[in-house]
Amino acid sequence: MFSLSVNDHVMIAHSLPDEFFGPAQALHGATLAVEATFTSDQLDEHSVVLDIGQALQMLDDALAPLQYANLDEHPDFAGRFSTSEAIAEHIGTSLSVSLADRPDIGISVHLRENPRAAVSYTVVNRP
């Protein structure tokens, strides 16, 4: 199995309005470190999983609508909590759409909320 990982970060604002989330119920900002990993059983005709520049651009495109956004007002999070897990899923889904013509490439998103906590999401059902 081969893999290619690229990373960036996204700055968001959101609240998690439920007692379950303690102090995170209030509106707050977060800077999330994001790593996207693309996997394949075999390399393509150029001996790569995916072009690094293309992978970076896809991650940039996936993060752009979230950058400096208040996720409480973001239509893609209407009716659901914008937890780190949900944000990772959102990014993974966006990357999946960008790679709709390459179903052979696996996608996972690793999102670090702080130095002690991270979540991951692996795209299972590709469009």
TrEMBL record:
<comment type="pathway">
    <text>Purine metabolism; 7-cyano-7-deazaguanine biosynthesis.</text>
</comment>
<keyword id="KW-0456">Lyase</keyword>
<dbReference type="GO" id="GO:0070497">
    <property type="term" value="F:6-carboxytetrahydropterin synthase activity"/>
</dbReference>
<dbReference type="InterPro" id="IPR038418">
    <property type="entry name" value="6-PTP_synth/QueD_sf"/>
</dbReference>
<comment type="similarity">
    <text>Belongs to the PTPS family. QueD subfamily.</text>
</comment>
<protein>
    <recommendedName>
        <fullName>6-carboxy-5,6,7,8-tetrahydropterin synthase</fullName>
        <ecNumber>4.1.2.50</ecNumber>
    </recommendedName>
</protein>
<dbReference type="GO" id="GO:0046872">
    <property type="term" value="F:metal ion binding"/>
</dbReference>
<keyword id="KW-0862">Zinc</keyword>
<dbReference type="InterPro" id="IPR007115">
    <property type="entry name" value="6-PTP_synth/QueD"/>
</dbReference>
<dbReference type="Pfam" id="PF01242">
    <property type="entry name" value="PTPS"/>
</dbReference>
<keyword id="KW-0479">Metal-binding</keyword>
